[in-house]
Amino acid sequence: MNNNFAFNLKRIRQEKGLTQEQLGKLMSKDYSTIGKWENGTRSPIMEDLLKLSDVLNVDLKDLINTNYHSTDKKSFDELEILFDKHKDILTDDDKEYIKFIIEKRKKEIDKELGKE
User: Fold this and answer.
1) Which letter, b or e, does each residue of 48-82 get, where b requires 16 or more Cβ atoms within 10 Å of its Cβ?
2) Range of 88's domain?
3) Last residue of some domain: 26, 43, 64?
4) CA torsion sign, 91 to 11 to 19 to 106?
5) Are 59 and 26 contained in the same domain?
6) Domain tally for the chain?
């Protein structure tokens, strides 16, 4: 499994408002297993991928595609440059949280403008 899966799983889980522990319970797995999937040290078997897709209510391709929710690649490239400049103080979780906030705000704006 590639790191795209790890990134996508974490992002989708966070979008659904679930903790690793909550997702673990829904999957009948320990939260540490979810953490290992999200940091890329372990990969789920196909049965677990299918269950994740069902539990998270997303298409399987959204879990493994490289472009899940990357609606504005350019802005995330710019963020990566900014993150690199501040790599001494930002954790990976900080970076994911910042990206999540930006994506959430974009959705709110689109909704206000009637684009959704």
Assistant:
1) bbebbbebbebeeebbbeeebbbeeeeeeeeeeee
2) 73-112
3) 64
4) positive
5) yes
6) 2
pTM of the full structure: 0.57
Provide the CA 59 distance to its chain's centre, in angstroms: 14
CA distance 100 to 77: 15
57 shares its domain with 85:
no
Structure tokens at 28: 């009948």
Nearest of 25, 1, 23 to residue 11 by alpha carbon: 23
- Structural tokens at position 10: 């974490």
The H or E element that residue 8 is part of is helix 3-15
Whole-angstrom distance, CA of residue 100 vs CA of residue 78: 15
What would the pLDDT profile of 8-66 be if each residue is shown by its tens digit? Answer: 899 899 888 899 999 999 999 999 999 999 998 999 999 999 999 999 988 888 888 76
**Distance (Å, whole) CA 56 – CA 14:** 10
CA dihedral 33→35→37→39, nearest 10 degrees, is -150
Tell me the DSSP string of 52-85.
HHHHHT--HHHHH-TTTT-TTHHHHHHHHHHHHH
